[in-house]
Structures are given as structure tokens and as C-alpha cells.
Amino acid sequence: xxxxxxxxxxxxYKCSECGKFYSHKSSLINHWxxxxxxxxYECSECGKFxxxxxxxxxxxxxxxxxxxxxxxxxxxFFSENSSLxxxxxxxxxxxxxxxxECGKFxxxxSSLxxxxxxxxxEMPYECNNCGKSFSQRFNLLQHQKVHxxxxx
Length: 152
Prior knowledge:
The protein is of the alpha+beta class. It has helices at 4-8, 25-36, 53-64, 81-92, 109-120, 137-143, and strands at residues 13-14, 21-22, 41-42, 49-50, 69-70, 77-78, 97-98, 105-106, 125-126, 133-134.
């Protein structure tokens, strides 16, 4: 019955906080941690906590050095397939993320997010010392040097 939902698309479990639907109760429980901040999975090596067991499993590769995903172009290895896919854009030149405002394309979604701040004027990084705001975290860190390195 549960497996059938994969084919039917049925999603009977709804998050009461944000309204998202899930096909399995376990998926809803895992999602709920986004709202509660619960992180029940601890790394035995460094003590870092994670909300998902899969995140902990991925993190463990930091300690083991395991990098099973190889780039066929340059031979570089990666711990995650998603990192390999992103890396391969260096070789292909693919820029799949387009800004709807100006039509500029980006290799990574994070680059598009940063770029969009040019259009929106968003300044999410604020100096705790003087209140000055910045669109990029790097610019805030550079600015904080004028306060003698204080990061209050």
C-alpha cells in the first residue's frame, strides 16, 4: 500500500506548520525537524549533530576521506555525486541558472541567489558594531576589519 503512493502520487500526510504534503509519515517526521530544529543524529568523531541520518552519513566522509565519485574529464574525486555534477560544469561550460531580471546565466544556483540581490537591493548581512548592511557575506567580513576584528 505505501509503495503504491510512489505510482499514484498520493500524499496524505500534511505538515501543520507549512502545509507541505508527504507520501509517508516518516517523511513528514523528518521534515518536521526543519521547524523544530531537532538534530538527533550525532557524529561520533566530532560531535556535530544532524537532523537527517543521511546528512550524518554524508558528513562521515569528511572524516574517512572517502571520495567515490570521479570526474572522467580531469580525474578529480568527490565525496558526493552532486558535487561531481556541479564540478563537471567547469568542463562543459553549462550555466543552467538564469536571472529572470536581466537574462544572465550562472553555473551555480548560489551564484544566482547572490546576483539577484543586485536587482532586489537585499542586504542580509548586517554589522553588529555599526549597523551597516551588505549584500554579500564576504563584504561584511572585510568591513568588520575596520572595527579591529571585533565580531560582537
